Amino acid sequence: MKSLMSASPFSLHLSKATPFGVFSLASKSSSNLIPTILQSSISLHTKPRMILPKFPIFSIHNRRLQSESSGSSSDGEIHVIVGPMFAGKTTTLLRRIQCESENGRLSQAVGLLWGTGLGVDSGTYALLLQECIYRKEYKKGRRIHAQMVVVRFIPNEYLKTKLLILYAKLGDLETAKILFHILSVKSLISWNAMIAGYIQKGLDGMGLHVYYKMRENGMKPDQYTFASVFRACATLATLEHGKRVHGVMIKSHIEENVVVNSALIDMYFKCCSISDGHLVFDKSLSRNVITWTALISGYGQHGRVMEVLESFSRMKNEGLRPNDVTFLAVLCACSHGGLVDEGWDYFLSMTRDYGIRPRGQHYAAMVDLLGRAGRLQEAYDFILKSPCMDHSGIWGALLGACRIHGDIDMIKLAAKKFFELEPENSGKYVVLSNAYATHGFWNNVAEVRLMMRNTGLQKEPGYSRIWVQNNVHYFLKGDESHHQSVEIYELINEMSCVLNDVGCFLVIHHFYGLLCRSVAVIKSNKDTRYRLDSIVTHDGMKLPCSALANLSSFRQKFGPDAYDKLDVIGIDEAQFFDDLYDFCREAADHDGKIIIVAGLDGDYLRKSFGSVLHIIPLANSVTKLNARCEICGKRAFFTLRKTEEIQTELIGGADVYMPVCRQHYVGGQVALDAARILSETQKVECGAYA
Ligand SMILES: Nc1ncnc2c1ncn2[C@@H]1O[C@H](COP(=O)(O)OP(=O)(O)O)[C@@H](O)[C@H]1O
Ligand SMILES: Cc1cn([C@H]2C[C@H](O)[C@@H](COP(=O)(O)O)O2)c(=O)[nH]c1=O
Asked: Where are the PPR repeats (predicted)?
């Protein structure tokens, strides 16, 4: 039934705001609403160009209908962010809010477009295509193009270029090429898209060829062109072309750009021209972490371990913070140089000093480091303790190390884990086969060869499955084998007619409505540290907000209609809201809102603060953050009050509070308690003498 569903992956409902009988378009993909739509259309829309389904394919959920009519976009979610002061709760809240607001419903927007069966204006198509490109949802972009073709919409030059970019990024270069050729004016953007498309697909030679064609056509390259072409020259290790393009860049007098410079440094290093790489680096006026990382990785590629470590330390001395890529280069260098202890130090420093959480690749580099040094058991134990046991790279690294030092059991174990995660990685089968061969296990070599043959098997085609009255129905793409396929396709056609009828209501703001979620942020009006109209993090990030005494007044104050249209609600300083539980439950369960709550879980006495902890049972997710202990720099879980006030609520920042680790909380609290007792005693004694 997949085909049936995908014919109308959007829902319609009777809008509260619109007059009875007029449809408004809503967002949630609810194939189970289709009978409702059809019935509503018959009775209210009075264009009965359809048949009612003869069998009850879908069930109808009324609650979902209600929440859709409230304009909200989700099933309702609650996410809670807690921790001591300075842990980054407000920062995280702001990031999540931004993320949620951008994370609109592209799928539904594309579904909506398909459902209408009509063409929309170029601006709407451009908006949707742009969103697909921006969000890297290229397949959705292709669906938009398919819809254009179906409704016989002729794209203008601007849209053709957008489509070209989309196909180039998708890696469908044949289609991109066709679009490129039919462009009457080939802009620099379209040339750049073609060049980048080939290079991203690994067709670096073609990318370079298109670059020369572009030059022949008299086009002047820009930073995007150079960044792509240097990348191609680096991969092809073609110093001659790299230098030639570098010459063009110098003559073009383009503004210095760190991305281009980094690509250039990388190109020289990959073309084995270390001195040129270094020269470009030295001459770079503006260096940032990317430029430094290009240099560090460059040295790493040539096994210049000492230069890697020296550059890394110079970079830090210049006050730049390394990022995860820099650390990866450093860890790989340590691995190649056999510097196990140094590798450990860098690995630990990532989180401790820079708050960078190592990813699978960093763990893999550590496994490689330990494995190459012959410390296979340690590498294995490290994997077991790592949080990314499902990252194929770490097992691949262990397997690679086993080739040199491993015993048969470890080889088998690493191979088993690796191929569970990446069954079709033919390259690693070769590694495994070689590992067995190195140790003379010829039977195992034969087994691996058999496995390799098996991986050549074609994957089963995907299918859709639907249950109807205890019967399971399977559908393949374009499938007509179902005994009711004639009726099913008839129904699809009828549905398309109904959807066409409402297509005239499709206007651009529906797409905007779908693509951008509407968001509101609330904070407690008790927090008077900053202006009441914005929440501000300890390092100055800001977002406008409503400051309220309680949450129950929010709907009324915000306006019921505006509230209904809200998708996401952020709540900061949640510890100050007594009605937090009821508000969150109602807003998520009933109104379908996404609620993101940030607040202190504990007060300065480490006692549960307000009702923040009460909402944990309601939550989809809970994130506990920590700060840095002001005294020792270790992870801080608690907030120490520096003053002697004892009321729970006391507004203040670093003047009154400091984040501390357990050790310094306990020590600090004892010290503060002693100070308090002393001052109380003194007060009593003074009173007695007075
Ligand atoms: N001791 C500290 N530990 C961690 N961050 C701190 C500390 N002191 C100041 N900060 C700053 O505070 C920022 C977090 O601010 P914010 O998100 O407002 O925290 P919260 O809402 O949890 O109090 C950090 O990004 C950092 O720049
Ligand atoms: C520990 C503690 C804190 N507060 C107050 C102090 C601040 O005004 C807020 C916390 O703000 P932040 O954004 O998390 O930094 O809460 C309090 O009243 N009582 C306490 O015990």
From this structure: 187-221, 288-322
Tokens of 199: 């290079």
Q: Judging by beta carbons within 10 Å of its beta carbon (0-12, 13-18, 19+), is residue 586 exposed, middle or buried?
A: middle
Identify the residue whose C-alpha is closest to ligand 1 atom 17: 88
- Helix H or strand E encompassing 659: strand 657-660
Q: 568: closest CA among 606, 595, 531?
A: 595
Catalytic residues: 573
b/e per residue 620-642 (b: at least 16 CB within 10 A): eeebebbbbbbbeeebbbbbbbe
Tokens of 466: 């639907």
Q: How far apart are CA 616 and CA 599, in angstroms?
A: 12
User: What would the pLDDT profile of 327-354 be if each residue is shown by its tens digit?
Assistant: 999 999 999 888 999 999 999 999 999 8
Q: How far apart are CA 267 and CA 273, in angstroms?
A: 9
Q: Does 651 sit in the ligand 2 pocket, CB within 6 Å? A: yes
Domains of the chain: 626-689 (3.30.60.20)
Atom of ligand 2 nearest to the CA of 651: 8
* 283: its two tokens: 């001459």
Residue 142 sits at the vertex; the CA angle it makes with 139 and 146, to the nearest 5 degrees, is 140
Given a cut of 60, whether residue 635 has pLDDT beyond it is yes
Give the Å distance between the CA of 86 and the centre of ligand 1: 3
Give the Å distance between the CA of 539 and the centre of ligand 1.
7
User: pLDDT tens digits for 125-152?
Assistant: 888 898 889 888 898 899 889 888 888 8
pLDDT digits (tens, 9 = 90+) for 199-237: 999 999 999 999 999 999 999 999 999 999 999 999 988
Tell me the three state secondary structure of residue 12.
Answer: strand
**C-alpha span between 358 and 364 (Å, rounded):** 10
Instruction: Give the 3-state secondary structure of residue 634.
Output: coil
Atom of ligand 1 nearest to the CA of 84: 22
**Rounded distance between C-alpha atoms, residue 257 and residue 618, angstroms:** 49
Contact 520, 546 (CB under 8 A): yes
Please check whether residue 78 is in contact with residue 618, taking contact to mean a CB–CB distance below 8 angstroms.
Answer: yes
d(CA 412, CA 417): 9
| Model confidence, pTM | 0.54
